[in-house]
Amino acid sequence: QKTSICYLSFPDSYSGGLGDTQFSFRLRQAGGPRSSPFQDDGRYNREAPVTLQREAAHYFGYVYFRQVKDSSMRRGYFQKSLVLVSRLPYVNLFQCLLQLIAPEYFDKLEPCLEAVCNEIDQWPPPVPGQTLNLPVMGVVIQVRIPSRVDKPGSSPVKQCNQENLLPAPLVLPSVHELDLFRCFQPVLIHIQMLWELMLLGEPMVVMAPSPTVSSEMVLALTSCLAPLRYCCDFRPYFTIHDSEFKEYTTRTQAPPNIVVGVTNPFFIKTLQHWPHILRVGELRMSGDLPKQVKVKKLAKLKTLDTKPGIYTSYKTFLHKDKTLIKRLLKGIQRKRPSEVQSALLRRHLLELTQSFIIPL
């Protein structure tokens, strides 16, 4: 397990990218009892939305990786990752926490981590419906833990906490919600198709230029069924060193029901028998009109410089929702904030899921 975490904590593709990168992964727990160190586990899972329950058999890893030129190092580079491992899918909270801790840690090393761990040990447990104030490194992170009784699609309740917090808290709008619009921008016109593939639990590979893009896209895909939970396996970032590598690349049996995010071009060859492949480029900010990726026949997936696109032979049941696309494109032209665009998209996906649930 430790070895897997080490491999998953570094970008697998050769990217000359210097600077800091953040991404996340999900890891199957290896053997051992599935007991939880948390006493209230049952209570948390009963009160939390199904999409945010603690996982018994998987860990999430949240990574902050830094690569900078450094002549004192033998390889000429400083390359280090700080990883936070948790059973909770709180991607925003933990990535925000790493943004505070990691730069300090890279400068001051172990003593800094020890101080941070002492502070985190004092944090209250996550109770659905409560707003927590989490002090760390002279900052207070304020965040509300969603509850099962929240109305889906409503904006989070505005808190007015009477405590005088010094310093002013860093308020996170959500513990877990991604910028859906930014993630889905290159594939907006295929959003219905992607939703269908997720609903059917179809095997899908996301091929991306970096672990950041791959993990965000996989998390966006698995979150688009909310309030339903995506119950198949998913790996926001997956490398050839993974213990499940053989299981996923074998051609003797059908691919497992899993969404897997990869960056190594080697996977284009080893996974070309998978039925649905989504190839995405770098995610840009939503100022420019999205270059929409096309749907291509699977047979075209032979070369290593595969163009961005969705490679599948799948025929959708739903038609494209042109009014949604028009509203979002108008939003880009009017420079509408990404949060608003994401909210539109999230509401649309919620309505899709609800219209599917109603007859059942």
Describe the SSE topology.
Blueprint: H1 2-8, E1 19-28, H2 41-47, E2 58-69, E3 77-86, H3 91-108, H4 110-121, E4 131-136, E5 139-144, E6 170-171, H5 180-184, H6 191-199, E7 204-207, H7 211-223, E8 233-235, H8 245-249, E9 258-262, H9 266-270, E10 276-279, E11 294-296, E12 309-312, H10 322-333, H11 338-357
Parallel strand pairs: 5-6, 7-9, 7-10, 8-9, 11-12
Antiparallel strand pairs: 1-2, 2-3, 4-5, 10-12
Organism: Callaeas wilsoni (North Island kokako)
Family: Belongs to the DENND6 family.
GO cellular component, one term: recycling endosome
Q: Can you describe what's shown?
A:
The protein has two domains: 1-121, no CATH class; 180-312, Rossmann fold, CATH 3.40.50. Helix 3 runs antiparallel to helix 4 (110-121). The protein has eleven helices and twelve strands. By secondary structure, the chain is of the alpha/beta class. The two termini are 40 Å apart. It has a six-stranded mixed β-sheet with strand order 8-9-7-10-12-11, with helices on one face. Strands 1-2-3 form a three-stranded antiparallel β-sheet.
